[in-house]
Amino acid sequence: MSERILIVDDSDGTRDSLGSILADDGHRHHGVASGAEALIELRRQSYDLVFLDLVLPDADGLELLEDILNEDPGLPVIVISGRGNIDLAVRATRLGAYDFLEKPLSLERVALTAKHALDRVRLSRKLEQLSDRLDSTTELVGESPSMRRLRSELARAANSDGRILLLGENGTGKELAAHYAHRLSSRSDGPFVEVNCAAIPEELIESELFGHMKGSFTGASADRAGRFEQADGGTLFLDEIADMSIKTQAKVLRALQEQRFERVGGGAPIQVDVRVIAATNKDLEAEIREGHFREDLYFRLAVLPIQIPPLRDRREDIPKLAEHFSTLFARRQGRRPKHLSSEVKERLIAYPWPGNVRELKNLVERLMIMVPGDEITVRDLPAQMGESAVDPLRSLLEQSHLSLREARAAFEKELIERRLDHLSGNVSKTAQSLELERSHLYRKIKAYGIEVQRGQGV
Ligand SMILES: Nc1ncnc2c1ncn2[C@@H]1O[C@H](COP(=O)(O)OP(=O)(O)OP(=O)(O)O)[C@@H](O)[C@H]1O
Ligand SMILES: [Mg+2]
């Protein structure tokens, strides 16, 4: 993709010669002759590099430079100074100009300086993308049957271009699932743009989604692209859709039906190529019955409805998730992950997690900060996870999808682990106490992947 370069210089000759050097290198460029035009142009569309003449008829070059950098701090600006104006150029670089060139311009210097500046732009964009990805790529952790099913459903849905509706309680991972589907889709190189419908004031949401034209309402000081436009070629994630007003719902419905829309305040209809993923933690069917949500919009959005189960229905994922978060925070804080004692894991498994994965993540983060040692013990847990909450049998019974065979195996494993713990990891004594052949017990220990830790327990 060729970069866009703005040339600000009142001399026709300089604009032309700069322009032809840049065009030879395959860059798109646009020239303006005054400071005022430069600012208008920079607000109208985005540029990757600016050549700025420091001596302009209508503006103080240094002030203009500051204005430009205030609008877009990452934008490289190469200043051009006349002979004898070097001190001005040096002051400009102190203010943040990328580099300066002296008139008369040398072809090689121009081409090389532009190349370096654009390389830097590309590099810092790449870095931004990567760090975005690192944060959001955190995988969808969990090996419970329902998590496996969720991952495969998301992968299949991502493959198509159909609209996905993610349903699930607070903190179950709807946003993460949306990122996951985007990454697996053919649009993964395109943008992932998010709109939280609950967080945007009602009177601004339309402009947020569809953009606006300058002057269309108080505060609309320039034309602005909306989220739909920003998501062109990628994915638009509409979060908390039940919080859209009926009026906004009508506009969104129309945009989805007609595949195009207009900015607030008019302008030509805009067509974009966007895959929409929507999410809500509300019961949309109830919202429809009560007249708060349009049924026709529901059908448009819910081509591929995907339910994310609450954490209490997939308790076997809890220890894995806790370890995952412990490693994550340890890495962020530059420390070692903390070990969770088996009793801690039991209590975490037994707790009902009304705030789902987010609550678990927050708890682990807190523990990582607050607990000084390398091991987290039950004493470190909040009171509501106290002894009375521990009931592995109950948590086993609450796992709604287990077959009798799976439940029996889970119980057996639990029992063997505890007995082993209790007998300090002595396999012979444990076999005796369970009235099993020692070799038989060994096979079970192996089959269940139980770690025998000698010398532990009472
Ligand atoms: N399966 C998972 N594996 C790893 N991290 C997860 C998983 N599920 C959720 N998380 C993490 O838990 C936190 C909450 O998830 P997310 O924000 O996606 O939930 P949500 O359903 O959008 O919640 P809300 O309804 O409150 O907006 C996030 O930090 C997310 O990264
Ligand atoms: Mg969310």
Overview of the structural elements:
With 458 residues, the chain is α/β, with parallel strands linked by helices. The chain folds into 4 domains: 4-132, Response regulator (Rossmann fold), CATH 3.40.50; 142-309, 3-Layer(aba) Sandwich (Rossmann fold); 312-391, Orthogonal Bundle (Helicase, Ruva Protein, domain 3); 402-447, Orthogonal Bundle (Arc Repressor Mutant, subunit A), CATH 1.10.10. Helix content is 49%, strand content 14%. It is built from 19 helices and 16 strands. Strands 2-1-3-4-5 form a 5-stranded parallel β-sheet, sandwiched between helices. α4 (86-95) links the parallel β4 (77-81) and β5 (99-102). The longest helix is centred in the N-terminal third of the chain and has 31 residues, at 107-137. It is elongated, with a radius of gyration of 30 Å. It starts with a strand and ends in an 11-residue tail after the last helix. 30% of the residues are buried. The mean pLDDT is 88. Adenosine-5'-triphosphate binds next to α7 and α15.
